[in-house]
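Batch manifest, entry 17 of 40.
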Amino acid sequence: MNKKTAYILFFFLLMNSCTEKVDVALDNTYTRLVVDGDISPDTAEYCIKLTKTADYFFNEPVPPVTNARVFLSDGETIIPLSETDSGISGIYATKPTFAGKPDRDYTLHINLSEEISGKSNFDATCKLNHVTPLDSIRAVFEPDWGSEGIWKIQLWAQEPGDEVNYYLFNLYRNGNLITDTITKKVVADDKFYNGSYMNGIDVLYLNNAHKWETIYPGDTITLQMSGITEEYYNFIMQVQQSGFSIPFFSGPPANVKGNISNGGVGFFAAYSNTFAKALVR
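Output type: structure tokens
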């Protein structure tokens, strides 16, 4: 009986302690510049988006950074970027005729019209790597995987084997991007295939139960394989593990290591692309 009474007293003490009010202080984070954009050797208009970070419970769209001076340099040429929408968007674009050149280091220079946390100049540098060409791709359906089966996207290509290479994969269905957020993109290295022929290796899996992002017989799929830097590979891995998507950020993911100087957040990326198409059967 004494032991039973002791258990009852312990239970009530525990319940009383659990109902005590606890105030959690959530400090505001200091504002940072956020940079999101990339370039490649494919001729196109490339955009760099500049915004500010916001507090964790900020319930409005993150504020754009407008009226900045933004340009690229490759050691030989200065490429100015112009803000779209007459200086109200925070999106800065190259001319449609721009194309990056492989094996060059591209530096993004940003000069703000108004300081952010006491800083107005930011830089980011990324090497534009080559990528091995894709030979072909195939979609294979596995009906016994998951509740409604999965689609495996396989590729064939010769891995160069000169060094450790890093890859980014995107998938298009009938011309529309399926991997449309950073959490859906796939990154990989070639440590297991370095110098070998990649003979039908699996690079993407699509859950057939997710009807908004699966594929169907008769669809045309396009796989984009990009040759990225190790730094960008690590950045994507960190963002995916943090559970946040681009565009970002509120406060917490600021510890994800990007390549923006002066405490800026995000990444400026440069990479080459190769594409292959297939008809889903």
